[in-house]
């Protein structure tokens, strides 16, 4: 099999054309059809603490066709999608032509989605939907007012923006690349595009003017602190990322005076019923033309240099990895 391998902590990742398949383990064996590129994959390849066993095949997503199974739920020919569940971190992942995985977090590919589009959605898109569901479950509706998406040009942000606009929300997109990406973000459904410095340059007062009925945050840190301080009474902020930083210097004021909910989002360990709910909603709601317009495709051979680009915030939207290239 072809695979990207990180052989030891601190070692450079490399593409191996004849990697040893017997190193794979897990009851469901697959031909990987596509993987996708996430911020976390960039961190793994750059040696920034994601890989937690060695040797490791990175890639936190895969879409594949089952070729054999030791469990009765799956059989040869089934098309499946797997996001997280430790692949690309503590288990071998999707940057390879073959995989063996545990069945726990596998989801059957929804009938209307091609394998390539499911990979384009990937962990970032799946996480975006989990975040939208947090707003839904918290009772945030378009009638409550504007919703904010931070890190809007990124993979999670782009999908979150398209999903919220599709649900009828007036969405404000925050980006550090207004000149380059404002038109792209409007095409995805943003009613307004703001510069991320407006939210993230420094932490402001614990309570600020109420601007957001809800927010989906990819970046954490100063930005998230200010977003909480600007969230309206009863609003919900779904936090899934740390692109600006993992710190959060906030106060209890938004929670005790404005009834605000800070809703965490974790895709890696999401239970099966939540995975199915999110994938069904993605298949039903995500505009596939918009998905295509935000998707770039690269080959397995390009995954190693791509790490620096995603970590530098130079990529836009979602990136599919064609493991045969
Ligand atoms: N909780 C989970 O389960 C989960 C799942 C997936 C991802 N994540 C995390 O979510 C984050 C986003 O993931 P992704 O795959 O969407 O990554 P991505 O495609 O690289 O997007 C991240 C975006 O964040 C913005 N950004 C980058 N550096 C920033 C900074 N210093 N300050 C403010 N904004 C910055 C950029 O958007 P603009 O150029 O538009 O400003 C960038 O495009 C990452 O931290 C990732 O690890 C978590």
UniProtKB/TrEMBL annotation:
Positions of the Enoyl reductase (ER) domain: 10-321
Transmembrane domains' residue ranges: none
Top-level enzyme category: oxidoreductase
Gene Ontology terms for molecular function: oxidoreductase activity
Alphabetical list of Gene3D superfamilies matching this protein: Medium-chain alcohol dehydrogenases, catalytic domain, NAD(P)-binding Rossmann-like Domain
Record InterPro entries: Acrylyl-CoA_reductase_AcuI, ADH-like_C, ADH-like_N, ER, GroES-like_sf, NAD(P)-bd_dom_sf, Zn-ADH-like_protein
Keywords for this protein: Oxidoreductase
SMART domains membership: PKS_ER
Keyword check for Oxidoreductase: yes
Highest taxon above the source species: Bacteria
Oxidoreductase recorded as keyword: yes
Entry EC no(s): 1.3.1.-
Cross-referenced PANTHER family: ACRYLYL-COA REDUCTASE ACUI-RELATED, SHORT-CHAIN DEHYDROGENASE/REDUCTASE
NCBIfam families: oxido_YhdH (TIGR02823)
The protein, known as: Acrylyl-CoA reductase (NADPH)
Species of provenance: Brachybacterium fresconis
Biological classification of the source: Bacteria, Bacillati, Actinomycetota, Actinomycetes, Micrococcales
